[in-house]
Structures
1.
Amino acid sequence: MSPARILIVTAVTAERDAVVAGLERNGPSTDTGTGTDTEVNADTELHADTELHADTEVIAAGAGPAAAAAGTATALTSAASAGAPFTLVVSAGIAGGFEQPPGTVVVASSIVAADLGADTSEGFASVADLGFGRAEHRPPPALARDVAEAAGAVYGPVLTVSTVTGTAARARELASRHPGAVAEAMEGFGVAEAAALHGVPALEMRTVSNSVGPRDRAAWRIPQALAALGTGCAAALPVLRAWEA
Ligand SMILES: O=C(O)c1cccc(C(=O)CC[C@H]2O[C@@H](n3cnc4c(=O)[nH]cnc43)[C@H](O)[C@@H]2O)c1
């Protein structure tokens, strides 16, 4: 059995560096007994002259679903063209939490485009409601659950938004439209769309830096969330590497 080749997509370099630091810190424990040591390849630029011998690559593709989709698609195409395609993609980073305190790790049971659609007099209609697209991707459930368990994560829907929620009213609206949602971030759906185009499964792992609700940037606990992100990704890596479609 050959280990999965994993592409981890973050938005910003601070997230990418936190993931790489976590994976490197926990490197020895990531050996799954296949005789292959984990090598982590941190790409500094999407088109960097990347050596694709490593089984795990971590990129910072930019903030928002469009940058995430473009960066993910580019990385997947480059790897496939080089004869070493990725077999799993993970959207990773910090997030706003619905009821989850800072530092909580969350793993998506579904990756939901929460503001892609149309406003109507009857309320929001998603692209799926409108009949011209999909509004949700579902990661392989057994894998996502195993990853959540390994990382001690809360498991539930993670929303992708293009605008960070900044009021209590908007937070209530999203929560009522997506019961059980555990977090919102800005890239997961874009990463999953690109992965789906390549026929590669996608997961999303987030760590909570702030609450979804009234904007209070001073209350964001970014160092705590970044530390949890490294630890969570390191705990997940053996499960990811052992996965076979
Ligand atoms: O200022 C910093 O040092 C810093 C370090 C790491 C990350 C950041 C970001 O601003 C990341 C933006 C990224 O975070 C996600 N995010 C976090 N909280 C929320 C939220 O409440 N709603 C939506 N997205 C959130 C998102 O994926 C952004 O791309 C800054």
2.
Amino acid sequence: MTTTIDHIESIIIDVPTVRGHVLSMTTMMTQSVVLVRVRFSDGSAGWGEGASIGGLSYGPESVESIKLAIDSYIAPVLMGRDADRIAAASGLMARAVKGNHAARAAVETALWDGLARRLGVPVAQLFGGRIHDRLPVAWTLASGNSETDIAEAERMLSERRHRDFKLKIGKRKVKEDLAHVAAIARAVGDRGTIRVDVNQAWSLTEARYGVRGLQEIGCVLIEQPVPRERLDGLRALTQGYEIAIMADEVLQGPADAMRVAAERAADVFAVKVCQSGGLMPAAEVIAIARAAGIGLYGGTMLESGLGTAAAVQLFATVPELAWGTELFGPLLLTEEILAEPLRYGDFSVAVPDGPGIGTVPDPDKVKFYRRDRPGSLMAVGTA
Ligand SMILES: O=C(O)C[C@H]1C=CC(=O)O1
Ligand SMILES: [Mn+2]
């Protein structure tokens, strides 16, 4: 008896962040994500999540575009389809929806969650089984103020929650950013590592000065220093300096991964389920990096615990995440939306044991934070 896809519901939730999160192109006071629940004909269900950052300021999708793509274009082509044939469903989505990778990832993840639950195994099992029981988790220091960031780093170190720190830069002049990073690097010392994420903000000229300065400070990794269109610039920086250069926004799926690898334009790939287009496309990005000898880092789109749990399932199966992960999304939110939260500690996150992605949302939290709840301030104009 075939199990079919019977109902797809997409829910925008808006949750405050624990502090302002200052990136080069936006400052976040809340994080908005799209939770997707797929119900199947046998009564089983699967959950997925699509996320982006700062509306449309980080990349090509926003929660509103993710919800629209799912409701108007993805759901109609998947209704009634065989729930266990995820490769076929992904093919239907790819034909009906170009781009919109976070929207496709949210639905594809829910299909994996549902299938794994019907089989009674973790999603990791469907990708070869876990190798790791825990994954290292970096923290992003992005208060916008050096002293605040230093105090935060001290707290993360003393709580043994994080010791790899990613600093958001690119909003200030290069010289000011270098002073900011140097101050934090001095404070952290050899208790942890310092990386930066420029979020595409530098020109190639600024990047040459920035990369040289960061290398001298002892930074170990520089993420997406130049715009995603400047693959020549990313390659010049990768080839021209010892410090590792990481591709992020330029990686919108396996085809981009192939292009960056062929050009030798990065030392490391930030693998993101939403940017890749789902768990299977993210696994393809990982395969390309491994074949090309490019380092791997488990990236985040600041998903809630739900999307983070899905990413944990996939990254647990990767033999070597040489640069760890940044799967801290739920820790940036003032509220835990999962019924069973992910377990963080000892500078890492535990891979959940249960079936599927290993957890489900707390229905009361979803009800409280959903944008379309009666009386929600955010609902104005989105009806
Ligand atoms: O990599 C990005 O730019 C997206 C995200 C990851 C951590 C963070 O603070 O922002
Ligand atoms: Mn990034």
3.
Amino acid sequence: MELPVVDFSSWHDSQDGAYRQRVAQELVDACQRVGFVRITNHSLPEATLNEAFGWMERLFALPEEEKMKAPHPAGWAVHRGYSWPGLEKVSQTLSTGNDEEVRKKLREVPDVKEVYDIGSDNNASQPNQWLPDDILSGFRDFITSFYWDCDRVGKEVLQALAIGLNLEDENYLSKKHSGNDNQLRLLHYLPVPAQDLEEERVSRCAAHTDWSSITMLFQDDCGGLEVEDISHPGTFVPVPPVKNSIIMNVGDLLQRWSNDRLRSTNHRVSLPGLSDRIEGPGRMTRERYSIPYFMSPDDDAVIECIPSCMSEEEPAKYEPITRANYNKMRASMMY
Ligand SMILES: O=C(O)CCC(=O)C(=O)O
Ligand SMILES: [Fe+2]
């Protein structure tokens, strides 16, 4: 499986309808075949991305007690703030009724990463957990503007998807996203003995699909992301990092929205891609930083089959559902 590449250069300022249609078609083809695509020449400046990685390195380098001044609230309802290593466990498990036992079992193989989650300050149900500003002065301002930069790029991608899906309104998807329900994650995977990962005593991020409409991922040069080849289930293919490109993937909600035409593909993070990323006699993996940005429709947005994705032969498979109810169904096993 080759990861498809879509070149977005001049997407946002081109007046050439045929050109836009071609890019949009390539994007939709990739989302149907693979569910993952590398977007190059997008409109997020290199300097902005470098700055984002710089801030996250400074954030995670803070002493534990400082980071704990913005802790992730207990429980699963609020998804903001700092999560220390082992707190979060990504999984595909849905609630069974015996949640405590399932939770304990899932944590026998801890995820060795720390996370800082950020959303929109306009989202009252998901209050941001900011550090006191004197701890990392400037962080909040930069990250807030980065959040909205990412939202802008994400909406360009949603527009391209709408055009590629032959929707009359190119804002059909993006207008259900005010931007206030997106989520920005700063992820720091700690160094760990490669052998512990190989023998599955610990994990970095276990195989999962994302929930939202689309995810855009920025990664450092360490590697480790692997994507399932949907034509060979069970086979995971490394997606090596390419500086400044965005890895975009379809989430479960967009798969449902598109009547399963666009695919939400399993992915995971394990060993770094190259052996030079494993160091010393203890074979420690290098640390890794990544930034996923999840685009999510608004709470009350009703997700019902995209008109161009159904026909008489292919009727809508799913009932309409609000985004809030969809998330409720998915969230209860995370914390
Ligand atoms: O760190 C990565 O490269 C991927 C993380 C991821 O898949 C997620 O947070 O959903
Ligand atoms: Fe993911």
4.
Amino acid sequence: MTPQLNNHLSWLWQVLMSNNMKDEISLVVVTISLIFVLAIILSYSSKLSNRAPPLPPGPRSLPILGYLPFLRRGQAHVQITDMARTYGPIFKVWMGTKLYIAVNTPELAKEVVRDHGEIFANRFAPIAASLTTYGGQDVVWSDNTPTWRKLRKLLVHEVLSNKNLEASRSFRRDEVRKTIKNVYRKMGTAVNLNEIAFLIEANVLTRMVWENSSDSPSGVEFRMVVSKILEIIGRPNVSDFIPGLAWLDLQGIERDITREIKNLDRIFTSIIDDRIKSNSEKRDVAVGHDHEAEKKDFLQILLEIKDQKADATSMDITNVDIKALLTDIMIAGTDTSTSLIEWTMAMIMQNHNIMVRVQEELTQIVGPNNIVEESHIPKLKYLDATIKETLRLHPVFSLIPRSSSQTCIVGGYTIPKGCIVILNAWGIHRDPRYWHNPLDFNPERFLAHDGMNKYDFKGNNLKFIPFGSGRRLCPGVPLAEKMQTYILASLLHSFEWSLPKGEEHDFSDTFGIMLKKRKPLIAIPSQRLPNVNLYM
Ligand code: HEM
């Protein structure tokens, strides 16, 4: 009870006991006072029991700018992990006028993605990303809306289904063979593995997206636009942190992205128009032609679903939906996989014993007189463990952003509606409480024991979340798994790799939207397989 309340009660007690209090007016006054005091006591105690828990702790920050001036450029993942040691496993930090909440343990991550999965199924789209995806009308950046659910369902069940991934196997094979041939020509010279990985990923995805377009614009132009968009989205933008300044576009990011989006939209529009035209021409002339037997690219699959919309069971999709989905596949699929391939090659090259084991496995499963095929992938267990160990130490999405659609409680603290929650995958993956000798590169920890594999890419175990977890888990997992293992296996089976003379490995990283190697991996390939025909 507060001192004020105590004073009130003792005053009333004295009045009641006083000899002068004889008349009825006094009695009424005392009764009213009593009721009044009781009401205060009741409301005070109910307020105490209803009081929401506080916001998580966090550093002091400046008005308007928040913690922005103290951010270490390109090192947000390291800084957030360091701050968790000071402020605890869940803490808040103001970035400009936006409230961010960092979640740094698997237990708290579980509360976010599982226990409150529906509430944290929103995203916060940076301006550049939102503009690229037709106002966030896509899968990656849209909030948990009916449009998002429709497009995600379409992407997972129609576009990236096992059947379609199987049907597009030959596109991936062609592009990987082309790359091996190109690298073969450059043997003995220094090659940039980042460029090689980006080119092969972008080519594979472009083929899968619209292989059948007879007169589509050059893939080179498309790759350049995608690469520029990725670079612009990765730039930290003051307008995202202080929306009040967005109209000034201080860094020119909105201007730059708008220019690139116009290019992207022009390319998409012309491809879609051409395809619609050629589909109708084909329908007119090809009597008895078996369309079903044709391998279909993603554009064809989506256009066919769009054409079937009259059928009550199919989904109603628009050209904008199609463009947004294709953009997602290209944007979400290229840089992520490129970065993973580069990191994995760097880690394997630095650890000679691991390189030897990976190549021994390839020799045993594929054979020295064969090239790698996708059918070998499920048997390459050690390579799979090596990729997982790379993603543990260098998760491409180190800080996974979600946003809350309602105020709720996590870890005993209030998380307000609309704030941005960051799942710190980088910190969780390196936490000694969950990983033995976490800084050692040791693929063994991902090998199955007693036939049981403790970790998958589906985020079932929240100690390991390179592809996220829960409702917004990366839908590209089946494709990424196929592509990354196939490409890495092919590069490592066909060639020996070494650093240029006098060079040393540099594992420094930089964080934009993704975590990348600061310096590209430059390496020298040499012939590994005895038969030259395997490179043609
Ligand atoms: C190494 C490769 C990749 C990595 C590490 C990766 C990682 C991630 C992560 C961490 C998320 C956020 C998940 C969450 O919020 O819980 C995500 C979302 C997403 N990824 Fe991937 N990804 C990769 C490749 C791909 C590919 C190849 C595609 C496309 C075919 C793709 C499409 C998407 C999409 C559409 C989303 C948004 C899902 C949603 O918000 O509902 N990703 N990815």
